[in-house]
Amino acid sequence: MLKDYVKEELIFLNLTVSNRAELFKKLSTLFLDKGYVNEGFYDFIVEREENYPTGLDLETHTVAIPHGDPEYIEQSFISVVTLTRPIKMKKMENADEEIDVDLFFVLGLNDGTQHLQILKQIIGYIQQEKFVQSMKEAKTSEEVMEKLSGLLAGKK
Which keywords label this protein (predicted)? Predict the structure, then answer.
């Protein structure tokens, strides 16, 4: 199911941004230009991240899973994003703490019923250090898609 949502045109590798707001602005513009979100997406994702942080500290690595609201999503998607340098994200389990994150899975799902199932699937993958490392090392969007397809097909 996950590979149905990961869009190759929404895989952005080695972006250079200096903070969370800049990342969300850049991504929101890209998503909007490609018809995946509507105008309210940026404001929503910034506010949501402030109130319900999505940074995960998994001991050996960190990941964030920001997500939009169905109201602002035109077409469901999952965007995979890596950064050249980590940025500060608030921790999901403790908003007073920040962690450095350079791998993001941005969820834009317009069907709320599948949201939790997809989130659980992503969390299952990101708990695997080897998977996270392979996403960070990917050089092309095709490589990310191949690794995801292999994983989903049960390959290592």
Answer: Sugar transport, Transport
Q: Which helix (H) or strand (E) holds 22?
A: helix 20-33
Cα gap 152→99, rounded to integer Å: 28
Note the pLDDT tens digit of each residue in 104-130.
999 999 877 778 888 888 999 999 999
138 vs 81: CA distance, rounded Å = 11
- In CATH, the architecture of 2-152 is 3-Layer(aba) Sandwich (3.40)
Work out the end-to-end distance of the chain between its first and last CA atoms, rounded to an integer number of angstroms: 18
Question: What is each CA distance from 110 to 88, 95, 122, 142, in whole angstroms?
Answer: 27, 26, 17, 25
